[in-house]
Amino acid sequence: LGSDSAVLQPPHSTGFTESSLALLKREDGLEMVDHKPCLDGSDRGHPGLYLSCFDMLFTEDAAWLVRVSDSSTSTDIGPRLEPCQEPEQCPVIDSPGLGASPLSPTLEEQVEERSLEQVQSLVVGEVLKDIETACKLLNITPDPMEWNCGNVQKWLLWTEHLYRLPQVGKAFHDLDGKDLCSMSEEDFRQRSPQCSETLHAHLDIWKSAAWMKERCSGGETRMRGTSQKQHKLWSEADSSCSGQPIHLWQFLRELLLKPHSYGRCIRWLNKEKGIFKIEDSAHVARLWGLRKNRPAMNYDKLSRSIRQYYKKGIIRKPDVSQRLVYQFVHPV
DNA sequence: TATTAGGATGGCG
DNA sequence: CGCCATCCTAATA
């Protein structure tokens, strides 16, 4: 990935606050750190790393991110000859039975997985800080669901200022936080054609932040006394929060939350209804085995565990049953 | 041939 | 005991 400038200059907005951008601009340094643990001597670039970092912040609705990634890595969007640049996304080595080769990428995957999480937690920490700053400044809570109409207006004003958007507050004057959160991007578009994308994406960041914060503080009180460390909060909120072993359904949610990294092997068919499709069963199983330290994991066994969820009411088959398609009973 | 459904069993925290 | 991981049979696409 030679032309990183495209990543730093989204088409129509800066996309992030100064501090977030500053972090982005340090990407050379991060690259070095990132490759340090890579012992196999392969020095190839790492397309998608920085974009992947934001998968947990942006949903697939954040079109500009996707667009940037497509244009900057235009060589590998062809579905046919996708070069094996990111082993975790390479489906070629998925011979389930007697493959002799899949051993080498496994270690690499773990290393990349880990360094990716490190970068993620860094970025996420910055974003969290920005949100906290904004909350203090505006005297609002971080959770958009708790906002009243006045809070919504303040947030809009702040966001307009941040992204240098035209003032569109009037179009949202009758909405409180709950209303705002329930709006799709299309709803946003109806009220503000020019700013819908940015507003919706930015609100998504806040929603994600509130969601993760709630999950962490609600689940475990151990960390409460030392509430000073945010990166801990975020980097572990989605996976190993509260030290409990991760559940399969949580793991699947994690993958679905990072479409840029895992969209090729698992993706939402209908996010609102919680319907998702496993596009590459062997790949997902391999990732699950990686996480649980079960090298012999395969889709046969993974799917058996998913089926255990039927009785528990966590995951079910959608009304129109399709192969490799499941549905969360309780969508977020 | 891959996927699906679900029974049986055993390991582990 | 809950949550898989593993193995297995039978049915289905």
Question: Can you walk through the features of this model?
Answer:
This protein is mainly alpha-helical and 332 residues long. Among the domains are: 101 residues, Orthogonal Bundle (DNA polymerase, domain 1), CATH 1.10.150; 81 residues, Winged helix-like DNA-binding domain superfamily/Winged helix DNA-binding domain (Arc Repressor Mutant, subunit A). Helices cover 51% and strands 5% of the residues. It has 15 helices and four strands. Strands 1-2-4-3 form a four-stranded antiparallel β-sheet. β1 and β2 form a beta hairpin. α3 runs antiparallel to α6, α6 crosses α11 and α9 crosses α10. It is globular and about 55 Å long. The N terminus is likely disordered. The structure holds a DNA duplex (13 and 13 nucleotides).
The biggest beta sheet reads: 4 strands, antiparallel
What is the helix fraction of residues, given as a range? 40-55%
Question: What coarse outline follows from CA principal-axis ratios?
Answer: globular
As an assembly, this protein is single chain
Which structural category fits the helices and strands?
mainly alpha
Family: Belongs to the ETS family.
Domain ETS: 246-329
GO molecular function: DNA-binding transcription factor activity, RNA polymerase II-specific; sequence-specific DNA binding
Subunit structure: Interacts with the DNA-binding domain of the androgen receptor. Interacts with NKX3-1.
